[in-house]
Amino acid sequence: MEAGKSKIKNQKSSLKKKSTFREYAEAAVIAVILALFIRTFVVQAFKIPSGSMEPTLLVGDHILVNKFLYGIKIPFINKTVIPVSDPKHDDVIVFIYPVDRSKDFIKRVIGLPGDEIRIAGNTIHVNGVPYKDEHGYYSDAGKTYGLKGEKNQFGPVTVPEDRLFVMGDNRNHSYDSRFWGFVPMEDVKGKAFIIYWSWPNWKRFLHVID
Q: Are 142 and 177 in contact (CB under 8 A)?
């Protein structure tokens, strides 16, 4: 009789352990699915590897990018199925680098579809009007980026439909649309909105990106 009770007790204990393990396993699977969903459609973290966006973004800044803002896209083919809004002038965006699609770039939107862009010295003209360049930083020494060998001259060019013209805030040290052309709208991953951590620049913790 005692042996029978002991056997039943062991079976209950085993079932309880299996039930507990199953609960933890289900919770882990749900957490992974939720994390993948958030990363794919809502928010994704990135780390800044270069100084092309200085002083807005520094090397070592860890940022969050809002992927929902510009619409819900089907993964891998980047087709927008639920449009939400379009990129605007001055948005800091993360996108697939057109020259090497295995990499992501981050730049600031300067030109929207239909805009005429012309650069003369340190002045950007959009549709014939000087651009309110509040974020541009121009160092004394920089790259030569013009047409026909002219220094600090670019354009005019017109941004095609469904394309964007982007530049790094560190204007003289940024490899951007002046060199490799326009960014297809479907390749935009999202808008950078906050620096959640920075090393060694710890004072930039939870710093909103303008």
A: no
